[in-house]
Structure formats: structure tokens, C-alpha cells
Amino acid sequence: MKINSLFSDGGTCSNNCAMPSLKNNHSSVAFKSYEPTKAKEIAQRLERNYGMICNFDNNGYLAECVEKTTKVFSDLFGRNHIPKRAGYREMCRHWIKAEYDPSNNGVEFNKDYDDTLYGDKYTHRETMEEDEHFLRPDHSSSRHPAHVFAHEYSHCAHWHHLEDRNGYSSAMRVWIGLAGVQIPSAIGRLITRFKLSNYAVGTKSQCDMCEFMAERLAQDVCNGLTEESWTKYKSIDIRYDNIFSRKWNYRYSSPQSYIDYFTQQVWNGDIDSANRVGDDAAAYLAEIESQSVSDTVSQFKKSTEGTMFERLGRALFGLNETITEKSDERNKIRLRG
To answer: Where are the domains of the chain?
Structure first.
């Protein structure tokens, strides 16, 4: 699936101006999240164009973000892979910024973050850049303002793919299974060692396979979005058809191939195959680590040829031979005596 200029320069939303420097004091900017008319118009558009039922509680900025994300994921995966509901409410688990529920195909955003993530684009950007929740490399794959929205929509796309393959009941069992299994540690080690990505790896964040998939997709999507506006893509190629459908012999090919093949198994809900990729990745890591040690020893030997170390080694070897010869002579004298 190729991403390449999906949007025209005009985009779907009216605000395409470049964002001012964060060094400016945005407190003087009027707080614009409470925009009943704008929120209502966007909700009506989403219902008319995508069949979505939305309750933004008059938050115009949130409505705009949801509309942009809906457009992105509809273009990427199709209209049948987007949520049917979007809501804005206070959540019992206050630390959750948003969540997707496959049982009702709805995404909810937490009103506790009204003054940070869902207030306006200035505070949103600053939150993504300064909040330690997003700065932790083992937790979040991107600090792009679209990340929270892309993450939840990625869950949605993943769920619909599983439902298309298995039907609702079987897909739900698979979904629960994926959510209950942490990604193999070797996959996380490949990610962190080779810096293939900084999406969740399960080392500290206890990332399960569902979260891995959402972070993988969210990172790819956010990397393709323009920084100031989400209304157009940079010219890149995600090549999901290659990752999700390719048949390959990935063994001992490259670190990225292990990650991509693992991604394919998680996308398809094949937990056993995903774990086998983890076992293979562990063997691959052991192989390259062993080779790394061997190369280091070889380089050290090569670097000491003809040097003081080599001369010292030859001198010690010669001294040892001399001592051995003299010891042998003394032993012969004793035997003759």
C-alpha cells in the first residue's frame, strides 16, 4: 500500500497555516477548543461522509483532529476500516489519553487532557514535545501531534482486518489473545540494538502484540504526515502490501526483515508464528553477537601484528623455551648422577 501525496495542497481542513515557533508565548492566543458550531459541522460531515456517530462535546479542535485522521485512514485502509463512533468524555482510568473498543467499533478521547492534548494545536504540540510519557523511547513511537489519533485508528484498522479474516467471534478471541501476549524479548532487542524504530518494544512498557501493531502503524503514518498540518503527506512509500503479504525466507537476512515478518504475523493474528519469529530472532541475535566477538578478537590480533605486543609475545615465548631447555639439562645431570 503506497502513500504518496494522498492529499492535495488544499486538504480537507481550512487551517493550513504554518505553526508559529514554540518559543512564542501562546497564552495570548485565544483558546479555541470550545467551538460548538465547528464541532457540530464536523460531526455532521463525518456522519454524512463516513457513517460515523460523533459526540465532541463542542470541542472544535478535537473534531478537526478526528476528521483529519479519519480521512488519512480511510484513504490508507478503506472506509470499512475506520471507527463508527467517536466520543469525548472523562474516563475512570485518568492516565489513558484515548482508547479503541472493538466491541462497539468506537474510539473515545479522555477529557482529562482537555487543556493539553485536546485544547488547541499549540498546547498539543508542546505536550507531545515535553510530556515524559511521550519522551520515553520505549513507550511511544512518535511525538507527532497526530500520534494519539493514529494509534487508536491503527487499533481499529487491525481489528477490522482480523474480523475480515476470521469473523467477529473468532476475531475477538484472537484480539484478546494478542492483547494478552507480550512481544518476544528478542524482537525488542532487535529494535533497540539496531535502532530500527523507537516504537514500543515491551522492555519497560510491557507492550503486548496489539500495542506493538498500533505503534508500528502509528509511527509509519506519522512519519508520512507533514509536521504543521495533517492535510497532506510527504512523498514516501510505506509499502504495507510488501510487509503484510510478502512470502519470504527471512532467516539470517537482516534485522529489519525479522521485524517486518513479525509485524505480518501480528497483523494476521497468528500468535504461534509470531512467537516462532521471536525464537528465530533470538538465534539470529546470538549468531551476530558471537560473530561480533569473533571479529573483535580477530581485529585485536591483526592490530597487534608487528607491534610491541607481538614482540613481547615472541620474547616471552623464547624465554619460556630457554627455561625449559635449562630445566631439561638439569634433569639429565640428576639422572646421570
So the answer is: 26-288, 311-337
